[in-house]
Design brief:
Elements lengths: L10 E5 L3 H11 L5 H12 L12 E5 L2 H13 L6 E5 L8 H11 L4 E6 L6 H8 L5 E5 L4 H55 L10 H34 L5 H40 L1
Parallel strand pairs: 1-2, 1-3, 3-4, 4-5
Length: 291
């Protein structure tokens, strides 16, 4: 079973050895459906605002140890139903601590967004950064945290995961499109060269060969078909890559998109060179006919 490409992923994993913390996350991120109505009724009757903002409902799973959380992430990833984010406690004796758990989570699912829940005395942020490395997939939530912070992080990170997945799918689609167009150009070019060779070196006497003018007309018709079949989608591809480069990308994604743009421009240059070559041949033929 795989996730629908058009569906938003709001799956979140909570890894904490305290089951009371599990219940707190459930109340904050997956409250009962009627709680929203109760908050609004309280606000109307007593002038009190809701304790947490209106939010999307998240699908939550829980683990009490790092190894258990690792197993859940591995299984979810293999089934094509990955988690978008994970909230991981820093201290979970007697098993893995939060940093070791995160390292294992990223080993099986490099795309998962992680929030590490830590008291100030657990680990200095410098130690965390030194061990985990420079990454934009890790945030730290200091204890004690409040519901607003949790909601904001869950909302931001799940949206970030879905945006990154959409960009990745768009890049993969562009790569496939470039590969297909490259193959199309090669095929058309090969057929075109074979067509020219058969016309220029074909067997038979001069009196049975087609006039040069007829050959040129056939080449022009062939070129017109090629232009329609290749130039139009190639220009569309370049336009989409340009839009992609204007979107928020991480350095690796921007490098891939730039490569796609360069390849597309190279293909357009190849087609332009082919036009110029045929034009020069046509002019040479006209000069020869005049002489």
């Amino acid at each position: 079973m795989t996730m629908d490409r058009d569906a938003s992923n709001r799956r979140i994993l909570i890894v904490d050895d305290n089951v009371n913390i599990h219940e707190d996350f459930r109340k904050i991120l997956s409250p009962p459906i009627e709680s929203g109505a109760l908050d609004h009724a309280r606000a109307a009757l007593f002038g009190e605002g809701p304790t947490i903002p209106t939010q999307m409902s998240y699908e939550l799973d829980f683990a009490t140890q790092g190894r258990e959380g690792f197993g859940l992430v591995q299984t979810a990833h293999q089934r094509g139903m990955p988690y978008a984010a994970a909230f991981v406690d820093m201290r979970m004796p007697p098993g893995w601590d939060g940093l070791e758990t995160i390292e294992h989570l990223w080993y099986v699912d490099p795309e998962i967004q992680v929030v590490i829940c830590s008291a100030y005395s657990d680990h200095p942020w410098e130690d965390v950064s030194r061990r985990i490395g420079d990454t934009d997939k890790l945030l730290i939530l200091m204890k004690p945290f409040n519901s607003i912070e949790v909601v904001q992080m869950a909302n931001a990170l799940t949206k970030k995961w879905n945006l990154a997945r959409a960009v990745k799918q768009q890049i993969e689609g562009l790569v496939q499109s470039v590969s297909q167009r490259t193959a199309d150009v090669r095929t058309v070019n090969q057929r075109f060269q074979e067509h020219i060779a058969s016309r220029m070196t074909g067997s038979g006497s001069d009196d049975v060969r087609e006039p040069v003018g007829a050959m040129l007309r056939q080449k022009e018709e062939f070129l017109a078909i090629m232009s329609h079949e290749i130039l139009t989608p190639m220009n569309e591809l370049v336009a989409k890559v340009t839009l992609l480069l204007d979107s928020p990308l991480n350095p690796v994604q921007r490098q891939h998109a730039s490569t796609l743009e360069r390849c597309a421009q190279d293909l357009l240059s190849l087609i332009k060179d082919m036009h110029e070559f045929l034009d020069s041949r046509r002019q040479q033929t006209e000069v020869s006919d005049q002489l």
